[in-house]
Amino acid sequence: MLRLDRGRGRGYVAAPVDDQQDGDAMVTMRDVAERAGVTKQTVSNVVTGRVAVRPSTEARVRAAIAELGYVPNLVARSLATGSTRTMGLFVPTVSAPFYAGMVEEAEETLEERGYHLLLCTTRRDGERARRHLAGLTSRSVDALLIAGDQGLTDHLPLLADARFPVVLCAWEAALPDGFPVVTIDYEHGGLLAGRHLRQLGHERVAVVASPAHPVRVEGFRRALRENGLVLPDGAVHLAAEPTFKEGVATTLEALRANPGTTALFATHDVLAAAAVEAARSLGRSVPGDLSVVAYDDTPEGLLSGSTFTSVVLPMREMVRQAVDLALGAVDSAAGPDLRPRTLLPELVVGDSTARPG
Amino acid sequence: MLRLDRGRGRGYVAAPVDDQQDGDAMVTMRDVAERAGVTKQTVSNVVTGRVAVRPSTEARVRAAIAELGYVPNLVARSLATGSTRTMGLFVPTVSAPFYAGMVEEAEETLEERGYHLLLCTTRRDGERARRHLAGLTSRSVDALLIAGDQGLTDHLPLLADARFPVVLCAWEAALPDGFPVVTIDYEHGGLLAGRHLRQLGHERVAVVASPAHPVRVEGFRRALRENGLVLPDGAVHLAAEPTFKEGVATTLEALRANPGTTALFATHDVLAAAAVEAARSLGRSVPGDLSVVAYDDTPEGLLSGSTFTSVVLPMREMVRQAVDLALGAVDSAAGPDLRPRTLLPELVVGDSTARPG
DNA sequence: CTGAAAGCGCTTACAG
DNA sequence: CTGAAAGCGCTTACAG
């Protein structure tokens, strides 16, 4: 008689029935203990390393572990300890380069800390976030990191009821009270962009912005004001969506409205790449006929050899700090530090800006 | 006397000590049972819905659940049932648009099935994959979906020892025996690209390829051969990395080597966008002076209003089938269907190709 | 339809 | 340094 056995190995081998014990369904601590001639508590002690074990005993246990191919069951451990060593991560999407980078950086940091990553993309939808939060609660994640405020600002009270530490990062909306947050001075980024263009001598500037980035625009506006220039409302053009396509359309609109524009501030990388494309389609070269400042990251879309001038965000540093803040709160009785940490962006000067022709 | 209580609510409120019972650290089935005046098994029955419960009893239980804010502890359930309702997903990276899309689609499908997603990016590194696999094993995921073969072909034996079903998808290398796989006929995609260019009448063609895509190139080559044209080895230019920057450099190299080239096949979307950029930098318009066929997806990088001609892969369908195959294998004693499922790509004709000038 | 018992595989005090 | 006991919060047969 044969039966299908999913116990070990490939998973689907026909194995002879063994009525004595239920196959080798999973080797447990007890099996290791028997083999090594100790109790399972001793096995636990060598596995976790929290209690010292006589070297000769430890050697026997380790040998048994190796022979049996024992792997600790973290689900059981989690139930006993109350810690899953898993962190949830909310991001609006993973298709935007900035958030994709955050996910990879978070994963990297978590791996170093022995944690796993439960990913939830919210698609900027508060309702999705609410469902995910419920899922994370029943699944007992140790902590939750929320990257980006989009769609979430109305749902903060919900997050306040979470059973685990919640840390906010990349938070561009007004900072809510009561949450630890690691974020960036987004307005300062806009300021850097504005000052740079003013220093180059630009006077006829336009902005291609995402509706999610009023703060970046405000910083830009402030820089111009500092330099005696008023940014007219009509010079700010909003892209309906943060896509390349919309970026092109919006830039064309901006340049048609004000053909004399010599410099353009795009509030994120995809829009900046689109702006260059749009300018060229009108026969205007970058930076010869139009300077373009990007934001978030250095976008693709210029020729190799030349690079964008861009407000670059300290994304990696932000993620690391946020992960550590969240993980630190897990086992500290004191709770996380609620003072907001704000990192500063930097202006990286590339080849997409020049003095007005 | 106050103590810091992480039990419920915000997590870090000073709460009066309650020596009777350990605060409200977590409300459990037993609490609900007491409140409703039943045993916890009855609570379990209404929560899981597997055993019918008298309506009046059920109402009492549900009321108690609501009043107490009870949330089932899935860790405990997992230990009891042996199922975590979590699937692992390996992707090479999340920064490439194609894989980012796969992650979001997988998450979507899993959510519908009541599953969560444990994400692991392998960075095309077999050693990372091996570590992740160990993590997933101890964490008892129900299944693992592996998207993309990069860096993994040498580690298949390891995967064969997994304790859970492993499904491969987006597998471009030779199909390994013994694994269920949902993939795409990548060669056919190359064939479609080649035939299209030949039908338009191109004779001087070049290829800008990733080293990971020999099969796509082979299909392309075959299409030309069918049409009496031999693709010289010198016409295939490999991009060192799958980045925009490398794509530009490689295209420039290709066009300098054969200035008479009238059409170009790029083996993936980012390279195609880069090719257009490179061509324009040489003063050649697309498709007027150079036709470009993309692959994977419709890339950004042409003007709004015009689109790429591209070999488009049925990514969503592939992911859905793969997830269902993996999840189906979880509770079927029979094991997954090992016959490879191969989906066909489609050629979407856009504005980036035309008859040779 | 409801209740008492055993068990999932670990860890955590607590004796020796 | 090692062992016996209790418990984490659930589910799964199995009686009533």
Automatic annotation (TrEMBL), chains A, B:
Organism: Streptomyces litmocidini
Lineage of source species: Bacteria, Bacillati, Actinomycetota, Actinomycetes, Kitasatosporales
UniProt-listed Gene3D superfamilies: 3.40.50.2300, lambda repressor-like DNA-binding domains (1.10.260.40)
One of the Pfam families matching this protein, by short name: Peripla_BP_3
HTH lacI-type domain ranges (all copies): 27-81
Keyword field contains Transcription regulation: yes
Gene Ontology molecular function: DNA binding
Signal peptide (from-to): none
Superkingdom of the organism of origin: Bacteria
Record's keyword annotation contains tRNA-binding: no
The protein's name: LacI family DNA-binding transcriptional regulator
